[in-house]
Amino acid sequence: MLPLLGDTFVVQSPDFQGYVVVDAMVGGRAVGGTRMTPGVTLDDVAGLANQMSLKLALAGLPIGGAKAGIRCALPEGERRDRALRDFGRWAAPLLRDGVYLGSDQGVTYRDRAILFEAAGFDESAISPRRPLPCSWGQLWEHLADITGHGVAEATSVAVSGEGRTVALQGFGIVGRGAAQELTQLGAIVVAVADRLGVVAAPGGLPLDLVLAATDAAGTIDRTALPDGLLLSGRPDAWLDVDADILVLAAGGGALHAGNADRVQASLVVEGANSPCTRDALRALAARGIPVLPGIVANCGSATVTALVLTDSLPGVDDAPDVASLTKYLFDRVGSQVRDTTREVIARANRSGVSWYEAAEDLARRRLPRASGPAPARSGPTRSAQTRSAQTRWQSQSQTERTSTMSSDTMPDLAHATVGKPSTRLSDPLPQAQDPGDFVDGLTNEVLTSAAANIGPFYERLIAGRIPLSGVQAWVKQWYVDSRMFPSVIGQIAANAGYFYDARQVMGANFAEELGEFNPLREHPVTVRQLARALGVSDEELEFTEPYPETLLYVEYRQHLVRDYHWLEGLAAGSFAIELTIPNRFRKIAAALSAQFGLDDEALEVFRIHAGDERLELDYGGDDKHAGEAQDLIRKYAVTAEMQHRVRLAMWRSIEARKVYQWGLFREICLKHDPLWSTIVAGSDAPAEQTV
C-alpha cells in the first residue's frame, strides 16, 4: 500500500488496483462512492472526490468529500468478489476513521455489502443518534430514483414551461429516474442513449414501454420495443438529436473538445459526475449554451448519505417509518436542488459568468462554513486523541492559525541555551548557491548543532544518569510527539501538489511511519511497546499531560509543515529532524539496554529509525529519509529566495526542538535536583522568609 498524498492511498494487487482520495475531512468525516471499472484512474478518483466536496458544501452539509476507485476488469464471480473483499480489508482503517465509501458506477449494493463485511464495518452504526426504520440497503431500494429526482428538479428550474423536448445520454438508474420525473413535469423525452446506441422518436418516446424493455444496467432490449421507433447503432448518435435539453447521465468526459460542437440542445444538464471536460465547457459557452453543473443537479444520493452520516435526519416522531422517511428525503433533495439552482443562475446573471463558474464559486465560498465539530462516535476508535488535535486545528481559520503561531506571539526561543545557528536567521543570501553546495552546507549546520543533536537532557539519558521515573516521564512526552509525526509527513506530501517525485517519497515515508499500515508496526505503537517495557501502562500513556514545551513544539512543527511551501515543510519536518535521529537513537538504545536490560523487542522503535536489517520491515532507517529529503532540496531549492526560505524553516524547526529539549531537561532533570526546590521555594516565599 503506497500513499501518494496525505489524503490519497493506492493499493496494488494481481487482480485490481485500488485508490482512495479524501479531498476534505469536515467534522472528522468524509463521504464518497466506490467506482469499479476497467479504466478508472487515480486522476478520475481525485477529481470526483473534489466534486463531492463541492456538492456537499453547496448543500450546506458538514461533511467532506472522498472517492474510491477499483480498477478491475474481472467479470462477476468469486474472483471479483475476492477482489472486493481484499479492497475492503485494505480500506478498513479509513472506514473506521470516518471515511464512508458507498456505491458508485460498477458497485452494486451487494458489492458494497461484501466490501463492508470484509472491512468489519457495521452499516447499522452509521446513524447512531437516529436509528433508521429499516436497513441501509432497504432504504436505498426506496431511494433508487433520488438522484434522477434531483436532476429533474434542477432542470425544471433552469428551463420552465411544458413541452420541452429532452434527450438523455445514459439510461441507467439516474437516467431512468430523470426521464420519468421530467415526463411528469411536462417534458417530452424524444431520445435515450445506452451502450448499444440511440432509441428515438421525434414526437416523444413511449416511455413506459422503453422502461419495460430496459434491464437493471440500463441496456434497452431492441427486440422488446414497439415498431415505429428510430434506432441507431452509432454510440455517439445522441449528439445529433434535435432536443431542447440534453441530459448527460452516463460516464465522465462524454462531452469534450472533439464533439461539443455537435450538441443540438439549448441547455446541457450534468446528471453524471464530470461528464463535460473543461474544453467542452468553453466550447459550449462560446456557442451560448449553458451547462447546469453536476454539483448542483447530480447530488441526490450524496445528500441523502450525508444527511444520514451527520445525524441530520428528522426525529422518529416526524418520520417513524420507511415511507415517511422516503418522502422527507425526496422533498429535502428537491427543495435543496431547486433553491441552489435558482441561486446559481441569479449569481451568474449578476456577475456575468457561466452557471458553472457561479456554482463552483458559491461552493467554495460555502466550504469553510461547512466545517463543524466531529460527530459523536459509538465507542473508542484508533488515534482518537490524534484526530482530536487535528480537529482542533481544522476548526480554526487559516488566519487564526497563522496568527496563533506567528513570531510576535512565540516565546523567546533563545532561553534554552543548547545550541544556536552559526549565522543570523535574517541574513539574506546575496545569490543562489550551487544546489549541491547549499545542501551540503545545510547538512553540516544540522550535524554540528547541539540543539539538533544531543543536548543536556539526552546527554544524561545516554550516560545512564536518569532514573526509571525520569525515563518513564520522557517516553510519555515522546509518545505525544510520535502520535502527531505521521501527520507531519502526510501534510508535506499533501502540499507537494504536482511535484510527483516528492509525493512518492513522502508517501513511502508515510507508509513506513504507519508500519506499512500494519497496526502493530505503526511507529507510535512501537513507542508504546517501549513504554510498557519501562512499566508505563497504556492508560498512563494515552492520558499524558504534555509539558508546555512539548505542546508548543508539536503544534509549531505542524504549523511549519502545514502553512508553508512544501520544501520549507520538508526542511522543517523531515530533514532537520531525521538527519540526526539514527546516531542519537543508537546511543539511547544502547544506554537503555545497559541500564534496564531491555530486549530488542522493547527497543524496536530505535532499531526502526536507526536502521536494522534484522527487522522484518527494514527501510534503511531515517538515514534513507534524510537522504531523500536532501535530494529533493537539491533538486528544487535552486533560487536564492527558496534557499533562504528552506534554511529559515530548518532553523525554526531546530529552535522549536530546542524548546522541547529544555522542557524535558527542566521537568525531568532540574526539578529533581535538590537545588531546584531551594530556588523555587526562595522565589515564591514571602519577602521576610527569603534567604
Output the number of helix runs. 27
CATH architecture of the largest domain: 3-Layer(aba) Sandwich
Amino- and carboxy-terminal Cα gap: 65 Å
Strand order of the largest sheet: 10-9-8-7-11-12-13
* Rg on CA atoms, Å: 30 Å
Structural class computed from helices and strand pairing:
alpha/beta
Low-confidence stretches: 1-6, 368-429, 677-691
Strand count, sense and barrel status of the largest sheet are: 7 strands, mixed
β-strand amount: 5-15%
Shape: elongated
GO biological process, one term: L-glutamate catabolic process
InterPro entries: Aminoacid_DH-like_N_sf, Glu/Leu/Phe/Val/Trp_DH, Glu/Leu/Phe/Val/Trp_DH_C, Glu/Leu/Phe/Val/Trp_DH_dimer, Haem_Oase-like_multi-hlx, NAD(P)-bd_dom_sf, S-Ado-L-homoCys_hydrolase_CS
GO molecular function: glutamate dehydrogenase (NAD+) activity
Keywords: Oxidoreductase
Description:
Helices cover 51% and strands 9% of the residues. It has 691 residues and is α/β, with parallel strands linked by helices. It has a 7-stranded mixed β-sheet. A hairpin with a 2-residue loop joins β8 (188-194) and β9 (197-200). The model is unreliable at 1-6, 368-429 and 677-691 (pLDDT under 50). Residues 366-437 are annotated as: Disordered.
